[in-house]
Amino acid sequence: MSRTIIVSNRLPVKISKEESSFTLKVSEGGLATGLGSVYKQDDNIWIGWCGTEINDDEEKAQVIALLQKENLLPVFLSEEEILNYYEGFSNEILWPIFHYMSTYAQFEQKYWDYYQAVNQKFKQEVLAIAQPGDTIWIHDYQLLLLPKLIRDELKDVSIGFFQHIPFPSFELFRLIPWRAELLNGMLGADLIGFHTYDDVRHFTSSATRSIPVHATANIIQVADRNVLIDAFPMGIDAEKFESLSKDSKVQEEIANYNEILKDSKVILSVDRLDYSKGILQRLMAFEKVLTDNPEYIEKISLHMIVVPSRDSIAQYKELRDDIDKMVGNINARFRTSSWHPIHYFYRSFPVETLVALYSRADICLVTPMRDGMNLVSKEYIASRKDKGVLILSEMAGASKELADALIVNPNNLGEMYRAIIQAIEMPEEEQKSRMLALKDLVNKFDIHHWVKIFMDQLADIKVAEGIRKAK
Ligand code: G6P
């Protein structure tokens, strides 16, 4: 029987060590939930890094046994590999270039050497279990070389690749010294998916301009194979957010917030710590709202959750310091004895608390400088009953779908400022009609729909290629 193998840099679990034994917490994230219906079935499996450094062989065996019960298979990474493949090549070259922050990129040869070696390591794990006829679905920019590495060894498997971050325009992508190798790596897949058609266009243009391949519309011919490049905008588990918003514990949390915040307008922002998220620009816009509209003092507040991430990388550390400073300045400048404008949290929260905040927030401010999709915008919508205003950056993939949000350019401070004012003042009827349209979309194109259309498309290509080659 053929099996489906999911491969991503991280497994959808958190492993922690208590005394001498390991415990496991399976992630409740959207991707994990959506793919749950796939990897938990039969002999299917998910391969990825377990997220912590484990060197002892006995401990590795313990972790393998623990994960096996969940249909998960760990890849163990050494300290050097984490430093050079994950932090280095993935997050100091690909991440900044793909998010249009090219001056942050560090083109170190050592990073490239490790990136190749770790992609090889993942290949070994896949080859140890894959059989002809299997379907392999590889995720994201940490594993761009893996499709070809597998294809070279197993001609007859079906390989899908999905990139969760943007694909930049050729003028950015061409800066990478190893661009041809990366493209050839991705083109080992039968189907390459992105969140938006712009990503599809940028990828196709980069491929035809950097390597000798020919494209007809969104099909790229690689030797005797056709590779389909297409857009699959990712959704969330909308049902889960909606039902959580009605849960009695979440209702209690909402009641607590209501008591503390009374009838003041709450603006919410939730991000991982990242320079691509436009956190400082958002703070500037909020500061301008308070500066130019003193009547809002004590009437509005910004609740800003920043989830710690990649904090061993210099730019992330700097950003954290800059946020601390700016929040401190704004709070010191505007606070009164009974109110402060920004409630800033640098930590993660359980999903129940997030849903309570989404439910209480009158406005959700999602203004990344660049984002593949941005699922926070969809989580906010799914948690709402009917009203509420979403302000969304046009640089987030989600803006292509969520047209009833207030769409802004995060580099345009004046536009962000006006959108915040418009949101604060928006009549309830308009809020409702926008939100209900947004809810329809988020409910219909959810994570289960996303998994299904990608997997169906991958299966269809296999059949079509079989017919084409038989002719
Ligand atoms: C983005 C990427 C994912 C990554 C996640 C968290 O969403 O697309 O591949 O897993 O960020 O980042 P981290 O570096 O902590 O895995």
Helix and strand topology:
Blueprint (H helix, E strand, L loop, with lengths): L3 E7 L2 E6 L2 E6 L3 H10 L5 E5 L7 H12 L3 E4 L3 H20 L10 H19 L7 E5 L6 H8 L4 E5 L7 H4 L5 H8 L4 E4 L2 H14 L3 E3 L2 E4 L2 E7 L6 H9 L1 H14 L3 E8 L6 H14 L7 E8 L6 H21 L7 E4 L5 H10 L2 E4 L9 H8 L5 E5 L12 E3 L4 H13 L2 H17 L2 H24 L1
Parallel strand pairs: 1-4, 1-6, 4-5, 6-7, 7-8, 8-11, 12-13, 12-15, 13-14, 15-16, 16-17
Antiparallel strand pairs: 2-3, 9-10, 10-11
Helix pairs in contact: 1-17, 3-4, 4-5, 9-14, 10-13, 11-12, 11-15, 13-14
Quick recap:
The protein is an alpha/beta fold and about 475 residues long.
Shape: globular
* SS-based class: alpha/beta
For the record, give the distance between the C-alpha atoms at the N and C termini, rounded to a whole number: 27 Å
Strand order of the largest sheet: 5-4-1-6-7-8-11-10-9
Q: Radius of gyration over alpha carbons?
A: 23 Å
| Relative strand content | 15-25%
Mean model confidence by pLDDT: 96
Percent helix range = 40-55%
- The number of helices is 17
> How many distinct beta strands?
17
What compounds are bound to the protein? 6-O-phosphono-alpha-D-glucopyranose
What kind of sheet is the major sheet? 9 strands, mixed
Q: Low-confidence runs (pLDDT<50, min 5 residues)?
A: none
Enzyme class: transferase
Pathway: Glycan biosynthesis; trehalose biosynthesis
Organism: Pedobacter aquae
GO biological process, one term: trehalose biosynthetic process
